[in-house]
Recover the amino acids of this structure.
């Protein structure tokens, strides 16, 4: 049944107050997200003025005469080649240590980290992420790194929302909603796109369109948009002609562009993570790799393609207004894939949303130019194809087609092109879904050992049946039971709710101990007069055997009930479920999910670097089995007692597969051990000849 129908008037009032409370938090997130987006843009422009203008550039920024940060092409062309080469490297030299030593989750594009925090940690994000991500991304983008500002502002807004929620001690479900409010506010303020901001948070961050969550997210998005418009103006991000379908059959070439966008989006995703693997392999300090990546990106700019620097909105506009030749757009597409992969893979900080828009515009513009040249009377110009391919590319990489369609519509204020947008975006998403399991966001998490499959609901109680925790022996009373009988039952029972049933077992109502206490002073007078039917409350919450534990948790969270009845299809009482049991199940679910994510993340990292810091001087390490271990069982070796090191896994030389060791397992030649313990003790194992 619906939750509202199962509530007492007091519970409905409590729920309304809670909704009002969440609305107020959503407004606060919207305000913070809007000002955060504005400050972030200002920091990017300051960074750009510093790296490409030096002291004079900084002076022009504070004087209000610095050029906007949406395009670096003309600014870079005015600088000597060596300046263009070194500016991104200098930015990387600052970003690398900043991220490595203060908040490593600020590395890369940011959205996967928010998704992981929402799904595995109940929305908890460290407060320092706000500062580190803001500075690192502003430095990366302003110095010419080939990344965008949307991913960072999502992580910044989400972190702000998480800080609000943690200060207010919100429960995990509400904390996740507040995190999504921050993400929606950041996107809405950055793009001037309130609908897309809300959809982005729901479709990607929460993956849940529940109305209870959606309302505060929409409010946060709208508030952020209103504030950003009052500061930055109310203009679409891209001023383009009002393209429209020239003919109905033109949907065919738009679908073809969708196929190309899907395939190219997959190529981009593979390139990003291939670059990440290559930089991890490099034998140099991790904090220094971002500088090397910046040098390589600077080389692309110095070679004559400074279009790859920063967000590249100017070049995107050029593609959508037919201002770039087809071959130039193809060259920029290839260069942007390489430059963004290097920036993200080397440890730079910034989003992949703006690069996806850039690549989509270049791909669509080049293909559209050819299509229009072949069929000039029945197709639009290349600019129209650049516009729709942006949505197709974003949908392909993020697997969020609804957000992509609405966002491009809001960015351009062009509703006539929506049918083409839908055709291209749906086809591109279908292509990538058929060919690859993960989006560019979830692929990063899966590489860490974290799975966010669509069948894994953010609520750990979702889908778990009530019957798991049902108490088949609740306290039942007939409607005719007198007050003395009721009092005697209370004395003998540890329950606080007593369910009054008819002779057929149908639930008539509930007697609450807290309500009965007020009658105790008059029990002598009322003993012979009052019966159970006079004391019950009929408007009480309940669940059915078909409900899940998430439904029970939602009811328990609205009031002080400790036990609610479980009814069958004929409204007969079949049992009850206790609040303490549901809370315990929730805590166990959260713990299991956190352990699964954390342990798999650790072992995934171990497979690459062979040693992982666990903190407190402890390490997890894979090592060749010492010669003194060969031919002996783990029981004989007794490694834990003798050395203080635990053997967690054995990777057999015969097949390379890891297995949990048993006491009787003997160590064979070529086996590798995964061990954990104090660093000094683990290092001593390497030199053992006999234990």
């Amino acid at each position: 049944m619906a939750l509202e129908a199962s509530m007492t008037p007091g519970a409905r009032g409590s729920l309304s107050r809670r909704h009002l409370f969440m609305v107020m938090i959503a407004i606060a997130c919207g305000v913070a997200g809007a000002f955060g987006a504005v400050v972030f843009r200002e920091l990017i422009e300051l960074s750009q003025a510093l790296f490409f203008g030096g002291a004079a550039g900084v002076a022009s920024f504070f004087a209000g005469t610095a050029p906007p940060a949406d395009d670096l092409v003309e600014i870079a062309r005015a600088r000597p080649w060596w300046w263009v080469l070194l500016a991104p490297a200098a930015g990387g030299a600052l970003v690398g240590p900043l991220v490595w030593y203060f908040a490593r989750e600020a590395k890369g594009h940011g959205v996967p980290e928010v998704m992981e925090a929402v799904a595995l940690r109940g929305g908890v994000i460290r407060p320092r992420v706000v500062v580190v991500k803001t500075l690192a991304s502003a430095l990366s983008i302003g110095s010419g790194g080939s990344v965008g500002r949307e991913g960072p502002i999502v992580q910044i807004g989400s972190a702000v929302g998480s800080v609000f929620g943690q200060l207010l001690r919100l429960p995990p479900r509400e904390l996740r909603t507040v995190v999504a409010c921050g993400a929606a506010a950041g996107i809405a303020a950055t793009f001037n796109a309130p609908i897309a901001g809300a959809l982005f948070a729901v479709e990607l961050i929460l993956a849940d369109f529940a109305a209870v969550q959606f309302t505060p997210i929409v409010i946060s998005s709208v508030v952020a948009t209103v504030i950003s418009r009052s500061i930055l103006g109310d203009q679409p991000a891209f001023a383009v002609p009002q393209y429209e379908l020239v003919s109905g059959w033109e949907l065919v070439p738009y679908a073809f562009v969708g196929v190309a966008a899907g395939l190219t989006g997959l190529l981009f995703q593979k390139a990003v993570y291939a670059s990440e693997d290559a930089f991890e392999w490099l034998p140099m300090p991790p904090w220094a790799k971002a500088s090397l990546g910046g040098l390589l990106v600077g080389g692309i700019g110095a070679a004559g393609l400074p279009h790859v620097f920063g967000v590249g909105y100017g070049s995107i506009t050029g593609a959508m207004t037919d201002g770039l030749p087809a071959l130039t757009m193809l060259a920029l597409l290839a260069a942007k894939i390489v430059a963004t992969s290097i920036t993200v893979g080397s440890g730079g900080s910034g989003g992949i949303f703006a690069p996806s828009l850039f690549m989509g515009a270049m791909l669509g513009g080049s293909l559209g130019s050819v299509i229009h040249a072949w069929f000039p009377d029945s197709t639009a110009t290349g600019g129209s194809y650049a516009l729709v391919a942006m949505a197709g590319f974003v949908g392909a990489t993020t697997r969020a087609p609804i957000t992509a369609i609405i966002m491009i519509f809001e960015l351009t204020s062009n509703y006539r092109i929506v049918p083409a947008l839908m055709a291209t975006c749906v086809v591109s998403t279908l292509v990538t879904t058929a060919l690859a399991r993960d989006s560019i966001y979830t692929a990063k998490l899966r590489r860490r050992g974290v799975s966010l499959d669509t069948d894994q609901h953010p609520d750990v109680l979702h889908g778990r049946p009530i019957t798991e925790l049902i108490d088949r022996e609740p306290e039942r009373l007939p409607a005719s039971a007198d007050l003395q009988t009721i009092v005697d039952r209370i004395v003998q029972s540890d329950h606080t709710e007593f369910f009054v049933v008819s002779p057929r077992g149908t639930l008539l109502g509930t007697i609450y101990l807290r309500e009965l206490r007020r009658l105790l002073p008059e029990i002598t007078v009322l003993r012979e007069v009052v019966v159970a039917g006079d004391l019950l409350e009929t408007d009480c919450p309940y669940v059915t055997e078909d409900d899940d534990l998430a439904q029970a948790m939602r009811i328990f969270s609205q009031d002080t009930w400790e036990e609610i009845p479980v009814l069958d299809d004929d409204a007969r009482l079949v049992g009850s479920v206790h609040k303490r049991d549901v809370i315990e199940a929730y805590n166990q679910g959260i713990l299991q999910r956190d352990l699964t994510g954390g342990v798999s993340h650790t072992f995934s990292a171990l497979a690459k670097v062979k040693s992982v810091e666990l903190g407190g001087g402890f390490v997890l390490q894979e090592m060749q089995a010492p010669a003194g271990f060969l031919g002996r069982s783990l029981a004989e070796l007794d490694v834990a007692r003798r050395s203080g090191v635990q053997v967690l896994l054995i990777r057999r030389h015969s097949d390379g597969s890891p297995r949990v060791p048993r006491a009787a397992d003997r160590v064979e030649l070529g086996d590798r051990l995964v061990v954990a313990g104090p660093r000094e003790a683990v290092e001593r194992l390497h030199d053992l000849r006999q234990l």
User: Anything to note?
Assistant: The two ends are 65 Å apart (CA to CA). The first helix runs from residue 9 to 63.
